Amino acid sequence: MSLTLVQKLKQFERQIVFLRWGSSGEYGKIKYVGYDFVEFEVLDPENMEYTETILINPQIILEMVIGGYDISRIIAEYSSKISTQE
Asked: The dihedral of CA 25, 74, 4, 32: what is its sign?
């Protein structure tokens, strides 16, 4: 059984990832995955705030990074910001 990209992206809803599509690439959170679009909240790594929400056609997504040093660093910084706001 092979997974389609949409099925795989669905597994990572509400998680912080690096997503590359077309000529753009951003860190952010996958908010929603549908068969015709992906709702993606762009996270600014400088201030750890969501700057915009964009809708992406899943057919133009080129790459998704779900782990590694950069993602771990972004998640740690974002988590520490949430902790200090409470």
From this structure: negative
pTM for the structure as a whole: 0.80
Q: How far apart are CA 55 and CA 80, in angstroms?
A: 28
Domain of 69 in residue numbering reads as 5-85
Query: Which of 74, 69, 17, 28 is closest to 50 using CA atoms?
Result: 28
pLDDT of 86 reads 55
Distance of CA 72 to CAs 3, 15, 49, 59, Å? 25, 12, 16, 27
SS3 21: strand
Question: Which positions of the chain have pLDDT values less than 70?
Answer: 1-3, 82-86
State the total domains in the chain: 1
